[in-house]
Amino acid sequence: MEPVAIVGIDCRFPGAPDTGAYWDLLMRGADGVGEVPRQRWDAKEFHSQAGEEGHTNTTEGGFIADPDAFDNEFFTISPREAAAMDPQQRLLLQSAWRAVEDAGIAPRNLAGTRTGVFVGIMGNEWAQLHLTDYANVTAQVGSGNGYCMTANRISYHLDLRGPSLAVDTACSSSLVAAHLAVNALLSEECDHALVGGVNVALTPALSIFYTQAGLSAPDGRCKPFSAEANGIGRGEGAGVIVLRRLRDAIADGQRVYAVIRGIAVNQDGRSNGLTAPNRWAQQEVLGAAYRRAGVEPADVVFTEAHGTGTSLGDMMEVKALGHHHADRAGKPMALGSVKGNLGHTEGAAGIAGLIKVALSLHHRVVPASRFAAKESKQLKLRDQGLRLLKAPLRLPAGPTVAGLSSFGMGGTNAHAVLESAPGHAARPEPVNGAVPGGIGAAVFTLTAPNAEALRRNLLAQADAAAARRVPLGPLARSSNRVKAGHRHRFATAATDTGELVARLRESAADPELLARLTGRPAERPRTAFLFTGQGAQYPRMTAALYEQSPLYRHFLDEADAALLPHTGRSVRDLVLAGDEAVHSTRWTQPALFAVGYALGRTLMELGVHPGLLLGHSVGEFAAAVLARALPLDGAARLVAARGALMQELPAGGGMLSVRAAPADLAARIESEPLVGVAAVNGPTSTVLSGDLEALERIGAELAAEGITTRGLQVSHAFHSPLMRPVLARFAKIATEVGGGVPEIPLYSTVRGRVLDGEAMDAAYWVEHIGATVLFGDAAGALLAEGPTHLVEIGPQPVLSGMVRRLDHPAAGAGPAHVLPVRGPESAGQALAEALAELYRGGVEPDWDAAYAPEERVAHPLPPYAFSTEHRYWARNPVRGPGTVADPTASALLPHREAETAPAPVLTLDRPGGPADPVADAVLGAVQLVGGYTDADIGPHDRLYEDLGFDSVMIMELKNRLEARLAGIGTLTVQDLLPRLSSVGDLVAFLRELGATVPAPASFGDVEENRALMEEERTA
Fold it and tell me: Among this protein's residues, is 306 annotated catalytic?
């Protein structure tokens, strides 16, 4: 069959809260078994050493820690719904998210895709505890139970559109789920598949069953193939893997843990008993898997056995394996079973073994088996071509084949053949692009639903990066790609891992710094590029960025190559050499054009696509190229000719900046024919240009009137009547170049507005030389369009200050000013900080362009650190035989830190005045439906996105509102839906309908209301 790759893993087993801890437990040969936690049941009440009826012979098992912890806020699940959910659903939901992240995929990127979910599950004890409590069965309890929901809930919350199903074949469930997933991938029914297995022991029912069937180990431990084997010990846990067709994983550069070469499933049929193993069926399923994988039994180096530690089960499995491997003279196959570490995890047993095999192939070492020191002589393993691993087995270089068995109590058997990942898949090659990447620094990003989650995960990332040598580029790129999609967007720039670790820890510890480095964009970003004009140049401008950023270097080289035929000398070399000739007009204008073009194209290659463009004077040429109104070579020819022609003009011209409006200067200009208005940068910011003597006369008159003036250091009188001698020669060149209509809105400083279908043709560029630069008008028109970010494109900030003087937004309002280059010292760090600021504002960069090709490799990141603040557990305690429930004992409730008694309802934010009964009633109803407390809910909360409401909850809310409020008649869902954007919007809608509250008693007094809340939160 076509190989299928395991590209992502997450798991949680006894003594191992994550995948790394699981591998560590296996390599240490550690024991995850311990006392039954009191949270589950009182083991002493159910214990009988003799195994009496209704009792179990053990008080131990393999139990995970904190099974009641669930980060419902992360998945926008209301407390009431979370409390009703089977903890197996909760565990799988969190594990699925982390497994997708481990695959190098931002989980939200799978939304709407043909991704399948296949879950193996055997126990449904939560339903036994809650669906039999008929008086408290609610819609939430219904959807919180059922095998199907373990898979369907993952598909729902991640918006996955492929097959979604749960499988119960008892102990083989999760390996059978993997079989179905592989087949779905190979039939192209889905492109990604999530395979999970889960088991949480909530009652002693199966322990009692194992005891009564003579299968239970008194010490609660499985001892596979050991002389000490005396039965099954129960275990629990959850695991999820992500599968893809190997060819797709390789094409996308994903890390591959291992490859599934073949997998098969069959049934015992009519054997010695429904629960008795069938050796012949087992050996047949092994042979089918080998054939499908195209391997010989002798190719298999080790097998992860089902290995329960029961005498009959182990004997049948060994004989089935021996049928295929007994002739391996002198080279027996290694055998082990993770049940020796965890106990029998039942529905999760297959996934526990599958993950162990994948990790063994990935790390190229097979952990030793617990209890292997005393091998069972009755099994005669050597005669069957088998051996137990008493020490870790180091795997040789090259392909290694392994097997995995999982057999169901009812006779459904599964076997998989895995192989180590191809070398290029285990360590993927870098992703190369058409344009060299790298900006001279890294941008580390991380998103989370709220500030506290952000802080928690920043610390997790910092600790992981500090714990081992981590290359900064691959680390940051992986975080850019994987830790994305939430509302709170953190971004910071760094040049090495140590700097990054320090910044992450500082941000986590300092709320003010965290707030500065975090954005929560409320709207789609709209970015404007402002191109700086003449006067911003200096020797070696952007030289440090050129040295550090291959991406910027590429585009400056491109601009230089376009200019060279027209300048006769490399503009790039002149700038980088620090030549003072950069201040000479013939070089200034081409140099500024080259820098503007290179910076603009660098940002566009990084995924920052401007929606608005503006260039100040000569800055308009680079803007026109980015707007596709001019080709690069055409613009280069125009700029080179423009600078050279102006350089030929005689000296004697100058420019004067005046703090006055153009209208106030009109009379003086009219009397001086050699002086004109060069630029109007604002209402009282005017630049005059022309004959020096005339400017001196005007300046003296203005100074006498108390008007501030300042002479500008320029070589010529730009944008003045003194430019007329060059117009004819420039027009000839401009006619040959031509020009088109901008494809991106371009705010012309010739027209003082956006060009509306007007071409930037020869006539435009000729007029451009002598026309007044109407920057103030053009920038004002651009600001009126509401850009979110103004990015100044030039060697140092000039226009940003001018725009700030034009725009006077309220505190915290107005566009953000972004500066990729801040001056002579700017290098890659400044560009990275600009990109970080844009990301915080909602821009979605093309991250690959920010990194050199060798850095574009997947790097493993710590899994998402979910909150453990919220706890949800069973309403009905498990009681031993003959015990009577205490009517005064309260059920286990969802809980947090202790807090003061809540008021019955919240009030909306109102600027003073009495409480609003309608608002109070609405908020109280929302609290009850969602199971929220006072502190959880506010008027700006969105019912769907923030509070996790769905159609069932909306119906209940409608009914509660009708019961609580008078004057609204009978509401329809169609009436409500358009007004459910937020709690406050719903209140406003009900007020419009004339809602009133008849009397407080109509929906309960404080104590009654609170009691109802507590009751419904546990449902």
Answer: yes
